[in-house]
Predict the 3D structure of the following.
Amino acid sequence: MKQIIECVPNFSEGRDKAVIDAITAAIAGASDVKVLDVDPGEATNRTVVTFVGEPEAVCTAAMAGVRKAQELIDMRQHHGAHPRSGACDVLPLIPVSGITLEECATLARSLAEKIYQELGIPCYCYEAAAFTPERKNLAVCRAGEYEALPEKIADPARRPDFGPATYNDTVARAGATNVGARNFLIAVNFNLNTTSTRRAMAVAFDVREKGRKAREGGSLTGKVLKDENGKELWIPGTLKGCKAIGWYIDEYGIAQVSMNITDITATPLHVAFEEVCRAAAARGLRVTGAEIVGLVPKQVLLDAGRYFLAKQQRSTGIGEEEIIRMAVKSMSLDDLKPFEPREKVIEYLMEDEAETALKERLIRMTVKGFAQETASESAAPGGGSISAYMGALGAALATMVANLSAHKRGWDDRWQEFSDVADAGQDVMAQLLALVDEDTAAFNRIMDVFAMPNGTPEEKAARAEALEAATLYAAQVPLRTMEAALRALPLAKQMAEKGNPASASDAGVAALAAVAAIRGAELNVRINAAGLQDKSVAQPLLDRAQEIVAQALALQEDILLTVNRNIAL
């Protein structure tokens, strides 16, 4: 698996577009990385840039961004609402795929050392890259912010991990950079119907894991309580893996609870939203919405959307876009400005649109366009793609009956039963839709073999080997269509027996479509398996195909008996 990491540097400039553009261009132009998001904040005077790529490329691009920030940002002139210690304030490396957090920590330490050696900018290593336990906390590394750097550099206990022994002009201009490695973090601001920073801070203290100092009488202003050793006592907050503060944003004219969710497994976004709403209401406040800063993993929004649908006792077996729309509306992510999933969800931004469009060429067509493409002189799409599409329609119909049943008047207490069926139907439908294009790709793979050179004995052998592999693949793809379509039949059966009686005919059509997909795909398994030279490989494919057909026909008979009984006059 290719190693992919994400880097999310925060630069201390959020107002000067020319500076922001120059830093972003330096990152994008330094190596083979993809810039996913640039999120400037005027009030915080801070810009968050998100980019991804392979480790070496990301570190090269990060170095270029730090160098350009050093050139263009003078920390002696910087002011903003967000804590900061340098022109490039924080520089975290985040594992995405094929790489561990520990490996990212090693990269972060090397990058921090390089930043100091080549640019003279002092660096603290935080979170997983920290050299000492206390410096795992970014707040400890950044304590006192930029203004405290002269005294921190002079103090051996607080000196940067990589940096000079004395404060100098380079540090005065660029400040210090905090380089770290961490798992994915969600930065989110919760909007409050107040202008009071103090009240926003109180809510933040209620919910953040660290909590607040314990005071006499439980007040917010009383004397701080201490234990027998003189150590201050703390009352922990309610949300694990969350850091939060309260602030006022001039740009919006409201106070916010600004939160970093550092453990989205322990505290999903929707859980944080609900808890901040509860804590705010307990203080007479109301959360009017939320603002995600930077990017968010798709699964976070899908989990949130499903959570809010379940609260309404509504089926979660709907399309991905609808689930995300439910999350956006439920948490008012568009309260302050439009929320565009295609611009905020990391998986969407990582997609290569041209590559995806090619891979999904058929399923992106209109129904009319797909039919016309099939009817053309080309041999593909052919029976295999049509079989996969029929199976997808069968799964879609079973899913529709489940969703209609979940909303049937008087069946409110059964919504979860039907939601589970609809979720399963969505999965089967997605698999079959992918197979529509994959079947045509399998056919094209065979055609490509015939374009291979075939003159020398070596070329003939290579071509024969490639043809055998392509033919095997062309037989395996329709067998996968059969397996997937078979999974649609129990769903149709369940809906014929227990679903909304008014949709009994739809459950029957779902079964018929799924069986047609299976029988059509079986023909494609047979014709391609016949072309295999190794019959010991071909026979298991044929045996499994026959088993699936037998199972499908038996299920179809049961389903149609039930359907005909339900729709009999």
